[in-house]
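Q: Start with the shorter request: fold the first protein.
A: Done. Sequence, then structure:
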Amino acid sequence: MKLAEAKHAFVTGGASGIGLGIANALAEAGLNVTIADINEEAIEQVVKTRANQFRGVKLDTRDRDNWKRAKEEAEKVFGPVDVLINNAGIAPHGKPLADTSFESFDTLMNVNLIGPANGAMTFAADMRDRGKGHIVNTSSSVGLSAFGGGVGVYSMTKFGVAAMSYALRQDLAPHGVGVSVLCPGIVATNLHANTVKIGGESNDDPSSKPKPTVTADEIGQMVISAIENDEAVIVTDKGFWQVVEYGIAPVRAACELREKA
């Protein structure tokens, strides 16, 4: 999709971190942007920075009625949504699946997987019927290859987002609507603070985390390029294929074994 033809973007988790980086990039590309976030104070602060282009709406992505209201409010001001950025999410809690409480499991699933699905189901039909639009769903590097300790449930949600994106891309491509899945690596954001804010568990130990390899603003520019070029997958870090290949190797081995049988 050529962004010169787009007028309105809707960005969840748009008041901070990767969401804000993408929102700023879209605004610089000339779009009006609805900043959807659960943090009203953060929304107010961000909207002040681009008063003519940004409009805020409080949104809990788990709440389907909330999605309907947010869509109606946004489109009354800026018109139909051309670009949906399904970015809102929470951090992994650092626990193996065997030690995860059902409550924590449900929170991660509802925010990281059901939330983006709610967004896609709210906007996709309109985009399809208009023959125009692009959806970007934020997954993760661990949504392509499960690695590292304590991210089992988180990885499940992010694999789900990737699967949803691939399926949605096939569904919408014949109608002129693009879909990309964003798979960022380590980025400096306030993800853990937001996780705690909605009642999720957080393993916020800075000493245990790798250093960020890319900024939110840089990711914003990657997303712009991906929309323009209809890229199916957006990977933010160099050298990541080695990690993905490690995860795919058992599948290849299984397929080769079956061919020999």
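Q: Next, the second protein, separately.
A: Sequence, then structure:
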Amino acid sequence: MEHEKETIYAPATPGGGAISVIRISGRDAHRVMNEVFFCHVKKMAHAKLYHGQIRYRDKLIDDVMAVIFDAPRSYTGEDMAEIHCHGGRVGMSGVLAALSQCGARIAEPGEFTKRAYLSGKMDLSAAGAVMELIEATSSAGANAALRQLSGGLYEKITAIQSALTDALAIISAGIEYPEDDIEADIRRDAMPLITFAKAETEKIADTFKSGRMLRDGYSVVIIGRPNVGKSSLFNMLLSKERAIVTHIPGTTRDAVDDIIIKHGVPVRLVDTAGMRRGADEVEKIGIARAKDAVKNADMVLFVIDRSAGVTGADKEIFGALGGSVIVVLNKSDLPPKVSLREAEEIFGKKAVEVCAISGMGREALLKMIDPPDIGDSEDVVITNERHLNILKAADESLDMAIGAFDTADLDCVDVDLKDAWDRLGEITGLTVTEEIIDQIFDKFCLGK
């Protein structure tokens, strides 16, 4: 497409640092570079860094380092260049303006990686892993993205497609020569390939729970009445002052989150608005968001004020909770009105005593927050809900193909297997539509 033949540029690093990197890619990338970058050599060599100056119309803009990459030995597979300029806004803006005047256009979000995919430098699953790697919040999450970026998911999907291709070849023979009455032989030879494909598809889909946890974190939501110390507990677990804490009930008006790492898994702690009747309009919005957070939580820390005892409001809030809940008896430095054992009997859940202000009980509570230990897994996991939905659709087609052996003719088996093959191709990019490609790369950041 004509749009993709244009030469593009964009900052690949955020401004404000010591150095900013600006990327250029396209058939005129080297020409654009030569119009603005001046150094001691007449012709720059591939992948060699040079010192020089950015000038435009005889005006000095910045003192920089620069490098060019020859197609196809570049990230995008096209001719590319990079300018490593000073990170200040004025200097970087001057470099970007000069590039614009030389006929290049600002890149769209994700356009560099999109061009890498379109030029065959990476498959679609690897391209998606680039953004997963950038957004990783733990080493385990980064490793999972790197395995996809290195082609791990591509290899698994193409192995399944290879088995389906073999099964389709066997079935095609039966369709082409029906007079030979070889359907029993076809079933014998094709069924193991189909059941292998189904088992592998389900195995990959089953990794989504772990993959989602590596990407988004193990969600731990802190819930309770106003002024029981939820925000203090949140700060205690983080070991930093992240949430505002006052003696005034209803200080927290919205969900506030942050991350700690445990077993290599990001644990996303969420502090929520206190649950109470008669709240004002803003507080009601915060309470509604707190309820949504609880619905999506992997674990809930239900906080009560130990010095106030268990109230009717506590029981009402607890009655709306489900799943994994830990009862946290806060303010243990004050005279108690409920014991640990009594709280466990009332709520039927494990309880722990803490003092969020002093930090007492922090280690005991952290031991009870126990995400699955998936940090050392070396296998490929999927982290993308789009991939999960594709795998589920492919699995349904494979189920239909297996059933069609008994209830329909071989043409139906053939159609279902081809549908499964095409579905899986949407992960690697072999059968994906241009619209889906655009949707995927629109979610990328600028310069990637």
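Q: Describe the second briefly.
A: The first strand starts at residue 8 and ends at 11. Confidence is low (pLDDT under 50) at residues 243-254, 278-283.
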